[in-house]
């Protein structure tokens, strides 16, 4: 049985990855700050990186400081995303762990423009993208034993609701305000385009990386959505569930963004199903909100 060390197992992406690993018959050892984790790991204290036990075959590093922490605390952002990743790489090397899969992000490209494949040069536009890009560079020290995954914006029903805290992500924010307030307020005029890929596609990419099927850097791409299109879909689902109209208000007009395509040279983007998967996800989130006090 393959033994995998997983960081960030209580996070949005990490919890989904844990489910995928266990369903694939792998033994999962979690490292994190929660009482239920198998090993203690605090990204803000990389000097206390635990000694990893022998017998672990691979590591999936899905823990990181998210975009809000990176914006509010630069020192914490670099400590968690860069220094701690370097310390983890060293710990894995010392323990003889032969493979690391690192969960990076599309946001290493900053303000996107043009054809963004794995050959495009990242130009981070903020500390969130920069720290992930610097963390990617530390993986090069493993000389071919690491795979970097760069997913687009993620969507999908959380594997574990109890630890989910990413309500600021647009699809979740739209769902919550639609159910709570009967309206969705965009900060922009709705024209910005964002690429969204499902958790299911990300899980498949992680498993493929662990199987050695992917090159050192792989994009995990989905379908482009305008913020207005996503808001209108959310409003329509809310109307179906509640029987009342949900208004969508637009914010500040933004300068025209440069057109871009986010894709991979190593596989097709997630298939466009006319929004059916996104609609089912939004419906599941709204149903959860109507059943709970979140």
UniProtKB/TrEMBL annotation:
Matching CDD domains: SDR_e
Database matches in Pfam families: Epimerase
Domain NAD-dependent epimerase/dehydratase: residue ranges: 4-211
InterPro entries in the cross-refs: Epimerase_deHydtase (IPR001509), Lipid_A_modif_metabolic_enz (IPR050177), NAD(P)-bd_dom_sf (IPR036291)
Protein name, entry field: UDP-glucose 4-epimerase
Organism: Cupriavidus plantarum
